[in-house]
Design brief:
This protein has 234 residues and is mainly alpha-helical. The chain has nine helices and three strands, in the order E-H-H-H-H-H-H-H-E-E-H-H. A three-stranded antiparallel β-sheet has the order 1-2-3.
């Protein structure tokens, strides 16, 4: 299932959400420019669970080991990885920012991303594979949307063999189905002999980010909002 749009208009321009998309795009262009140096760059700035745990044991107060927790959120493993993540952020992020305000939304996004990184680290602490991508933070946005707009309609593209259909699906069904898939894939990843995520996807990061979004949304949402005269729509 591929979401095309939702039916909830944003009442103010989602400046933070847009800047997050732009910054991720800029980081990807920089990655592309590195060519032969890209492997070393990803190793240095991606989150490696085994490296983090080793550093924690050696020097608990070395804050530099936490930098990849944040830098990894803005790196991607390929164009499709970037595209699908940014598309999901575009569809769902503006409404969540609308409910929180720009500053709270930014803190919420980074906090959910951090929780997602640690969730994957706990699930696979001996992994030496760098984890990169914004999907954990975006999963937190999806969790918030699930709580805030369960009745929203998501226009969804569904392929059946070679024919593509579009159908409106309630947000709680779309996102609930998405979460179930993450759990099933995450469980399957634990059954592999090497303990690595199936297909190179950090499923437990998605689950951790989503649950963080569900639990934190009511902490960050604004109880009352005053909007401007105009409405900005997707």
């Amino acid at each position: 299932m591929f979401p095309i749009k939702d039916n909830i208009p944003a009442h103010r321009f989602p400046v933070v959400n847009l800047w997050l998309i732009v910054i991720n795009g800029i980081c990807f262009v920089y990655e592309f420019s590195l060519r032969g140096e890209l492997h070393n760059f990803i190793q240095a700035h991606g989150f490696v669970p085994a490296r983090f745990m080793a550093a924690q044991l050696e020097n608990f107060f070395d804050l530099s080991r936490f930098l990849p927790v944040f830098s990894s959120m803005f790196l991607h493993g390929g164009f499709l990885h970037l595209f699908f993540n940014m598309w999901m952020l575009w569809i769902f992020g503006d409404n969540v920012e609308d409910s929180m305000g720009p500053r709270r939304y930014l803190i919420f996004y980074l906090l959910c991303g951090s929780v997602s990184v640690f969730a994957q680290g706990v699930a696979d602490p001996m992994s030496t594979v760098p984890m990169v991508g914004a999907s954990g933070a975006i999963s937190g946005v999806l969790g918030a949307y699930f709580v805030l707009y369960p009745g929203a309609k998501i226009l969804t593209l569904i392929p059946i063999f070679i024919i593509f259909y579009t159908i409106e699906i309630p947000a709680f069904v779309f996102l609930g189905f998405w979460l179930v898939i993450q759990f099933l894939q995450g469980y399957a990843s634990q059954l592999t002999t090497d303990g690595q995520a199936v297909g190179g996807v950090a499923w437990w990061a998605h689950i951790g980010g989503f649950l963080a979004g569900v639990l934190l949304v009511n902490v960050f949402r604004q109880r009352s909002k005053k909007y401007g005269r105009g409405k900005w729509r997707k």
